[in-house]
Write a structure and sequence with these properties.
heterodimer, A: 209 residues, two-stranded antiparallel sheet, 6 helices, B: 468 residues
C-alpha cells in the first residue's frame, strides 16, 4: 500500500511538473509574441492596386455573397472624360447611358455632367458602393486611360478571415496584410496626389479652378 | 510611324471630334431621350487602337495621361473611406470565449449538468459559429502563432494570441472544456451525434494519428509562409457562412453525415488544436469524474460515450505478461530514435511535393509548362507575371531556392515529427495503468457530460432518491 501511494505521489508530482512547465511555456510564448514585438495591433487584408490585374476573382472568391471588394474612384486622378473607357463598353459603343452600353454589370457607376469648357464636356463618375460587386470590369477599362478606378477591400464589410479566400486565388499576389489603422492601399500615384492636395497648393487649384 | 505624342492631347482630339460629330452624321437612330449624342462607332474604332498603341509604345509616358480638368465651380471630391470594423469586437469575442470557458468548466466539473453544457453548446454555435462566422478561432490561431514565431516581419495581434492560449490554459486545469461546449466546430458535430457506433480500437488509434500529421502540416505550411491550411480546409465554416466553395460544402456535409454515426469525426481524427488540448488535458489538475462517488460498474457510461473515451477497469496480469510487456517497452524505446531519424530522412525527400502549395513554386511551374509549350494558352497568374516584366530566371531561381532550401528543412521536420508521433503512440499503447473502475481517458474525453448524465448514482443524487 505504501508502495502504491509512493507511485501515485510520483505520478502526481510528474503531472504537476508538466502542467507548470506547460503553463509557463504558454504564458512566455504569449507574452513574447503579444508584447515582445511591441506591435500588438490588428492586421487586415488589403489589395495593392498597383499589382492588381482586375481578373475578376475578387467578385467570385470572397466568402461573402457580395464581395467586400469594391471599385474606388480617385477623383484627383480622373480625367472626367466624356468617353470613359471605364464606363462604356468598347463593343457596340454608343455615347448613351443605356444599360447595354455600360461596362458595369450592375449599373453601379453614376455618370454626372459637370460642365462644358471650349466644347469639351466633363463628367464625374462615382461608384455606388452598395451596388458594386467588385468584378473589376471598370478597373480594367479605366486602366486604358488614367487608371483612377481601382479595387479596394472595404473593411466595414470584410470579415477579415484568417486566410482570405481571394488572396489565395489572386493571380497577381496583390493581397497582403496591412495594419488596421492604415487599412487602405492607394495607388502610388493616387497617394501622391492625395498627399499633395492635403498639403495645400493642389487644393487651391481645385477650389479656384 | 506612330509618334509617342502626349496622350492628353489625343484625348482632347477625341473629345472635340465627338463634339463636332454629335449633332449630325446620324447613321442609326439613338435609343433613349438623350439625342444629343451621335453614333461614332467608326471613329472610336480607329482612335481607340491608336490610343492603345501609343500607351503601349511609350513606356516613359507620364502616369496620368489625361490631366485633371480645371473646373470653374466644381470641387473635386475626396474618395470616401468607410469606417472600419471597430477593434473592440475582437475583445468582445475574447471576453465571450473566457466566459464560455469558465461556464463550461463550471457546468462540467461543479454542476455536473449535461443540460447546461448542451445549452451552452447551442449558444456557442450561435455566437462563435453563425454570428461571428467562425473567425477568429483558436484552431486557426495555431498558424498565426507559428508564423509570428518564424517570421519576424509578422506581428500577431494580442487578441489572436489570447484566443490561442486561453483554451489551452483552461485545459491544463479543467480538461477539454473548450471542446465540450465552446468550440463551434465541436458544437455542430455534438448536435449531430445521434446514432454513434463504437469504432474498433485499431481504427480509432490509427485514425487518431491523422490529427498529428495534420498539425505537423499546418505548422510547416504556416512557418514557411505558404498557406494557412487549417483555415483553407475548415469543413464547417461554409455552413456558418451559409455559402462558400462547393467542394468545402460537400466535404463539410460528408463530415456531418459521418458525424451521425461516428461521434465528432473532425475533433477526434483531424483537429490539430485537439492534439494540443489532448496533451494539456492529460496533465490537467481537475477532470470530469463519472460517478459522483462510487462506481457500480454498470457500464452505462461506456455505452453512452459516443467518442470512445471511457476506459474499462484493468485486469491483473501475471508475471509472464508483465515481463513480456517490459521487453516490448524497452524495444520500443530503442526504436524511437530510429523512427524519428528514419522519418526525418524520408521527409526531406518530400520537399518537392510539399513545396507545390507555395504560390511562387506554383507560378514557376505554370510558367515552365507554358514556356516549354506543354500547357496551352496562359492563366491569369502567368499573364500577371509577364505584365510585371520580371525576368523568368528570377522566378525559377526563387522557386528552386524554396524547393532545395526551406522546404527540405520543413520536410525533415515533418518526417521527424511523424516518426516521433508513431513511436510515442506505440509506447503509449504498451504502457498499462491500473484502473479499478470505469474512467474517462483524460486525453480523449471532451467533457461532453453524457457519462455522468447516464450514471445511475448521479441520477439518484439528482432526484434525491436512494442510491443503487
Amino acid at each position: 500500500m505504501a508502495e502504491m501511494n509512493a507511485k501515485l505521489d510520483r505520478r502526481r508530482f510528474v503531472r504537476n511538473g508538466i502542467r507548470a512547465a506547460g503553463a509557463i511555456g504558454l504564458g512566455g510564448t504569449a507574452g513574447l509574441l503579444a508584447l515582445g514585438k511591441g506591435q500588438a495591433k490588428e492586421y487586415v487584408w488589403q489589395l495593392d492596386p498597383d499589382k492588381c490585374v482586375a481578373c475578376g476573382n475578387c467578385q467570385t472568391h470572397c466568402v461573402l455573397d457580395i464581395s467586400a471588394v469594391k471599385a474606388v474612384q480617385c477623383f484627383l486622378m480622373c480625367g472626367y472624360c466624356d468617353v470613359c473607357t471605364g464606363y462604356y463598353t468598347t463593343e457596340h459603343f454608343k455615347l448613351d447611358t443605356a444599360a447595354e452600353h455600360q461596362l458595369c454589370p450592375t449599373g453601379a457607376i453614376a455618370r454626372k455632367f459637370i460642365e462644358e469648357q471650349a466644347g469639351v464636356r466633363y463628367f464625374e463618375y462615382t461608384i455606388d458602393e452598395p451596388l458594386c460587386i467588385g468584378c473589376g470590369k471598370c478597373v480594367e477599362g479605366c486602366a486604358l486611360m488614367n487608371g483612377s478606378l481601382y479595387l479596394q477591400v472595404r473593411h466595414d464589410l470584410c470579415l477579415n478571415c484568417n486566410e482570405c479566400a481571394i488572396a489565395v486565388s489572386c493571380p497577381a499576389e496583390a493581397f497582403r496584410r496591412v495594419p488596421a489603422d492604415k487599412p487602405q492601399l492607394l495607388k502610388k500615384q493616387a497617394q501622391e496626389l492625395t498627399d499633395a492636395q492635403s498639403q495645400g497648393p493642389a487644393e487651391e487649384r481645385t477650389q479656384h479652378g | 510611324m506612330i509618334q509617342p505624342v502626349g496622350i492628353g492631347r489625343l484625348i482632347v482630339v477625341v473629345r472635340s471630334a465627338n463634339k463636332r460629330l454629335s449633332p449630325g452624321t446620324n447613321k442609326t437612330s439613338v435609343r433613349g431621350a438623350n439625342n444629343n449624342y451621335g453614333d461614332y462607332e467608326p471613329l472610336l474604332g480607329i482612335l481607340l487602337p491608336l490610343i492603345l498603341l501609343v500607351v503601349a509604345a511609350d513606356v516613359a509616358l507620364p502616369a496620368n495621361p489625361i490631366p485633371l480638368p480645371e473646373f470653374t465651380e466644381y470641387q473635386v471630391p475626396r474618395t470616401p473611406v468607410p469606417e472600419a470594423n471597430p477593434a473592440w469586437r475582437e475583445y468582445l469575442d475574447l471576453a465571450a470565449l473566457a466566459v464560455g470557458l469558465s461556464l463550461a468548466s463550471y457546468l462540467a466539473l461543479r454542476r455536473r449538468s449535461r443540460r447546461g453544457l448542451f445549452l451552452l453548446t447551442i449558444a456557442s454555435l450561435a455566437w462563435l459559429g453563425f454570428w461571428r462566422q467562425g473567425c477568429t478561432c483558436p484552431i486557426g490561431a495555431i498558424q498565426n502563432v507559428t508564423l509570428a514565431v518564424c517570421d519576424p516581419g509578422y506581428a500577431v495581434p494580442a487578441a489572436t494570441v489570447a484566443f490561442f492560449v486561453l483554451p489551452l490554459v483552461f485545459a491544463l486545469f479543467f480538461g477539454r472544456t473548450f471542446c465540450a461546449a465552446v468550440c463551434p466546430l465541436g458544437a455542430v458535430q455534438e448536435l449531430v451525434a445521434l446514432r454513434p457506433v463504437r469504432l474498433p480500437g485499431w481504427l480509432e488509434h490509427t485514425l487518431g494519428l491523422l490529427a498529428y500529421v495534420y498539425l505537423g502540416l499546418a505548422v510547416v505550411y504556416a512557418a514557411t509562409g505558404t498557406a494557412f491550411v487549417i483555415c483553407r480546409y475548415d469543413p464547417f465554416v461554409a455552413f456558418f457562412r451559409l455559402g462558400g466553395d462547393l467542394n468545402m460544402l460537400i466535404l463539410g456535409g460528408c463530415f456531418l453525415v459521418a458525424g451521425i454515426f461516428i461521434g465528432r469525426p473532425y475533433c477526434r481524427f483531424l483537429c490539430p488544436y485537439g492534439v494540443l488540448l489532448r496533451w494539456a488535458s492529460k496533465v490537467s489538475k481537475w477532470h470530469v469524474r463519472i460517478p459522483p462517488d462510487e462506481c457500480i460498474k454498470c457500464r452505462l457510461c461506456e455505452d453512452v460515450c459516443p467518442y470512445g473515451a471511457i476506459r474499462q477497469p484493468t485486469v491483473v496480469q501475471d508475471a509472464g505478461q508483465r515481463a513480456e510487456g517490459r521487453r516490448r517497452l524497452a524495444a520500443l524505446i530503442v526504436l524511437l530514435p530510429v523512427l524519428v531519424a528514419g522519418g526525418a530522412w524520408l521527409g526531406s525527400g518530400l520537399s518537392v511535393p510539399l513545396a507545390k502549395l507555395h504560390p511562387t513554386v506554383r507560378l514557376a511551374e505554370q510558367m515552365r509548362l507554358e514556356e516549354t509549350g506543354r500547357a496551352e494558352g496562359s492563366t491569369d497568374a502567368s499573364d500577371a507575371f509577364r505584365a510585371t516584366g520580371r525576368p523568368l530566371g528570377d522566378l525559377y531561381r526563387d522557386a528552386i531556392k524554396l524547393q532545395t532550401g526551406r522546404f527540405v528543412a520543413a520536410g525533415r521536420w515533418l518526417g521527424g515529427w511523424v516518426g516521433l508521433v508513431i513511436a510515442l503512440k506505440l509506447i503509449h499503447l504498451c504502457l498499462r495503468r491500473r484502473r479499478d473502475d470505469y474512467q474517462p481517458d483524460r486525453g480523449t474525453c471532451v467533457s461532453c457530460g453524457r457519462c455522468f448524465w447516464y450514471c445511475p448514482n448521479q441520477q439518484a443524487l439528482n432526484n434525491g432518491g436512494v442510491k443503487i
